[in-house]
TrEMBL record, chain A:
InterPro entries: Thiolase (IPR002155), Thiolase-like (IPR016039), Thiolase_C_2 (IPR055140), Thiolase_N (IPR020616). Transmembrane segments: none annotated. Gene3D superfamilies: 3.40.47.10. It holds the Pfam family Thiolase_C_1. Residues 26-227 form the Thiolase N-terminal domain. NCBIfam families: PRK06158.1 (NF004811). Residues 245-388 form the Thiolase C-terminal domain. This is Thiolase. It comes from Cytobacillus horneckiae.
Amino acid sequence: MSIKRSAAIVGVGDVELENGKVAGGKSVLQIQAIAAKRALDDAGLTKDDVDGMFVAGLWGLPGVGSFPSVVMSEYLGINPKFTDSTQIGGSAFEAHVGHAAAAIKAGLCEVALILYGSTQRSEKSRSLAGRPPTLTAQYETPFGLPSPAGSYAMAANRHMHEYGTTAEDLAEIAVATRKWAQLNPDAMMKDSLTINDVLNSPMICDPLHLLDCCLVTDGAGALVIVSPDRVKDCRKKPVWVLGQGESHSHWSIQAMPDLTVTSAAISGKTAFEMAGVTHDEIDFVQIYDSFTITVLLTLESLGFCKRGEGGDFVKNQRTAPGGDFPMNTNGGGLSYAHPGMYGIFLLIEAVRQLRNECGERQVQDAKIGLVNGTGGTLSSTSVVILGRD
Amino acid sequence: MENSMTKPQPVIDADSIQFWEGCKNNQLLIQKCLNCSKHIFYPRIVCPHCTSEKIEWIESSGKGKIYSFTIARRPGGPAFKAEVPYAVALVDLEEGVRIMSNIINTDVDQIKCEQEVEVVFVKNGEITYPMFQPAANS
């Protein structure tokens, strides 16, 4: 049994940012409610249609944030029949898509709302420093590894050691992503960027420079996903879930078996097999770009190129507008926005591309897109393959 | 409120008490499964390879190689501000387990993947930490 084509995304919503912050000092509950309302309006549905709630977040922890699907249901006045607060980091929302499709296929709900919000930039709360190192953190935090950049930096160093990958290779990704951001009116960073700019930006954790790292912004996003029977009730054309997979290989970076391979090797294989499509049939990809190295490792792990060849794969601005491999077309976490757990925005952009709503940055004739989320310290991944009729 | 300049100290629990006690005695203690004979780090109540509960503590040789590392040019929290730049590494111990720590007593810009290192114990307050330095014979 597969969830292929058992559910479709019919609504997306997000909120405006000003210099990476939500306007008017809105709270994290307010911006999620606005994103949810917009996604429901987009779908042509109301909150009373929603019978499945999927929410993950970092707000309100410890406390109400431990129960995100419960809290947001209360705030919005929703009493779901299916509830899921799966929290596996930035890939949570790709996992939610799979879980929602499975629940819909099983007849447990018909209209699912997937929701995320963060006011981390407004609250200056990105730093994880200062939390007491309990449980598995006691073997890492006392040694001062900057989190999460330090873990990704170690992955980059290992990839460079094994394959001769260079800082220039990683910078190609940041520069190509910036070019997409320049086509997106909602992107935070639009100044032109060169490879030398990336290499000359301050070193954060060797070998990662400042411009190898994602932005720290606020943001909220929502998706509405429905059963095939409910698709006809909706305003917008459906974007079908063709395949989905999820996996994780470790939590602590110390336990990652091979720092050059992510569990996208497994989640991607699952998604491709379910969708029954080949790599050549993918028209664009949205790959989680917490750091440039995240993208490079993921492209290899997903099988778009062989292990160790990621640097060659992205050379000569191949992933930029006009290149033959459109990637992170909204400007990514590197240049558009990165509100902590970015995965939902990858899905929103993929839906907009497949609906031909992307204006200047539209990938022409896009029919099938791949979305990859990565969470933790390269810990969890989930891959969704989406397609239009 | 905790003083943000105090380095984060491990919150010792039932899994980790022998490990941190070992460090106090300048011993790097890791676990070995009596069923499948594999070594285990971090310490657990069941073997992650075979779920056996028959686990013993052994003393590691403290020798290993750097699997990967980074040099923190920005501190991992305010308490580490005075120490930048400093090296954090994943060390593959001879016994086959990987451990995170700092590489000390060396120029951070000379550190390389696969470099041979050995454990050195550093006391800070109540806790003694296992850190690593370039191996004497390398």
